[in-house]
Amino acid sequence: MATNHSGAQGEVDASSSPPHFISPGDGCVWADASSLIDAACNDLQEGDLVHGENFSLFAAMSALEIMDPKMDSGIENGYCTVEEAIEAGAAPVPLSFDRTVDVQRTIDVMDHLFSCEATWHKGSILAQTVFSCIYILRLERTSPHPILNAYCRIMHATCNEIIKSVSNARTHEEEDLFIMAYGLPLKDEDNERLHAFLHSVEETISRKLRACKAQPSSKKKQVEDVEPLQTNPELEEGYCRALLCRLRFRKYFDLTLRHIRNWQGKGQSMAHKYIITCLAELDNMRKNENFLKSQPHISCKDSPETSTTASGCKAIGFDATLNAKSLSPAPPRAAKIISWHDARVYFEKLLHDLDILCSFSFDPMLENILHFVVQFQKSKPDLVARAYLQLLLIQSGKLYGREFFHEVIARVLLLPDVAKDKAFHQNEFVVQLGQLLMVLLKILCTNSAWQRRKLGKTLQDWSVVSIQLELAYNREFGEAQNSSADEGLHAKVSKRLFLWAQEQTYWIASRFLQLGFELELYSPWEYCMVYWYMSVVFVQLLEKIQLRSIANIDTTRQKGKKKRDNHAKDHSRDAIFSPSCLLLQCHVYLCEGLAMILAALRNEGSAFKMPNTFNSEHERFIQHFELLLRAHLPEQISFSSFHESILHARVSDVVRCDYFKEIQRITTSLKGSFAEVPEKLSEIRQIEQVAERNRIALNIINQLGASDTSLRVSFELTHHPYFAVVAVKRS
Length: 731
Known about the structure:
Blueprint (H helix, E strand, L loop, with lengths): L20 E2 L7 E2 L2 H10 L38 H6 L11 H23 L12 H4 L8 H24 L21 H24 L21 H25 L6 H21 L1 H5 L46 H19 L7 H12 L5 H11 E2 L2 E2 L5 H8 L9 H4 L2 H17 L3 H30 L11 H30 L8 H28 L10 H12 L2 H26 L12 H14 L8 H8 L4 H7 L1 H15 L4 H27 L6 E6 L8 E6 L1
Antiparallel strand pairs: 1-2, 3-4, 5-6
Helix pairs in contact: 3-5, 3-7, 3-10, 5-6, 5-7, 5-12, 6-7, 7-8, 8-10, 10-12, 13-15, 15-16, 16-17, 17-18, 18-19, 18-20, 20-24, 20-25, 23-25, 24-25
């Protein structure tokens, strides 16, 4: 508790000694407060606080505690400067006069930097991870040590490349500290010269490896013209392999990042080639781990769960407190470096994610692009992979750096020729939709939490534009106008444009709701309202897709209308019952079935009734769907409409509707349609499993009765990320 020392007992009297003013010569005037502080120290008890008259407990939220190492960045902890650390021998060059120990310590430095880089990628500060290395901070000191110099320089260059890429993609707003350099020495270096030097160091070690392997196993002598890496012939091959796999990984990882940004020409294939090599070198690092751990001169070892090196020995030349004073005026963050094993797992996943980007076919269809991004996000890629995903999709304000977004929209409308029309791409609505589409792709490249927040906000813009488009179309061409063969191009474009904008708006709304499951924002007793709202959104999305498909078919009729009437009807039917629409219909049935089961359990028993401890069900409805309601998605939807729709739900009624059996019927016919689309087939199998289990559980509940007190019903997301499985048990 903070105590205000303004009373008689706690009053601090500073009048006994007048303050001594000091003028430092820079225009500032300083007052000596030593006597005041001494008096306060003698009088204050534990938990007491000295503060001014304008101080409040609210201000204490952002107060800093002096001399607390977690809050006070100016506290004397460790070395004050890099030079002081160097003078104290914290980062010797060479690392040891014993060449064997020098090699081992060099490998430890490499491994700790490897762990520091992974820690940085996961959101820590560059200054307290990679740049906690004194060798990185003073690269010129490593010049007499070619191996260490090459590794530190390529690490430095890779950090620079990643900062540029993440900054250009602007995904760093998720973690602002990621790209902050705090005045660190991040100067560009000639890439070709750097890789040439790295190659020469690699070749030197390769010659030493070949030389030691060329000798008979009984004679561990080196070829006379090749100086060994260290003095122990028994360890020569192991140390050479350990250094080579680390240097090669760094080289090819840097090349991967540089080629993955250049998708023109052979950039994509070369990046894939380098990724394969990086993964092979990571595997070599894993295989070499036992050799490094088995060295007799290593005495102090950490456990594999916490060790930041393969050998288990602490690396020298690191001090995370060196850059504490150069950080922003905020409490220094305690950066816990992840283990070497976890770092290796992280880089394996990062490389696999980047390889998925290399396999992307640059599909020009927007629907396929959105599907690819959503599928990519299911693997939970980290910040760096998502930054390169965005750089792949959007370059210089164009899709893939090649197409303007008005051309993308024209292709979506199935009117590619209209993109050449100047009036089209200068149209106010087309310009707005192009900007919104580019923003949408950028949002989809962010993490799940940031993505959901931004999608909720951009929904307002999409909704406003789609409403304005529909009003403009109705005002100009009339609500009752039917599409015909002689319909004007302007009317055709306007109609398709507002139908597509509406469809896209509801797609964003569905994505917004689904992300709530990924982020675990919904509690089981809220599933009823969530599935009910999802069913309404899915129904609207399905309707918009079908309307746009029919409009596309109707407006492409040419001459010979009478002869083609039956053919046009067949196409309209195919559009309404297309595989994509049928799969979406399965989503509708799942949501309706789950919402009605939950409603029936609430109505007939005591299960899944909303607790009103802190807020009412109405308030939770508003909290979850406020952004959708603001955008009028859908119109005339409110808490009262939700309450009325579930008020009379009964288990027998849900059994009679048989939502889940209908899903099984649809999925059986869909398997052939998606035979060559593995992701869709996998989702169909998941939906089948959810439907089958829920149908069985529903029948059990119906037979035993929802009011049976021995019945224990739970909803688990075990077979699908969004659609729960009903689990029934008896106590």
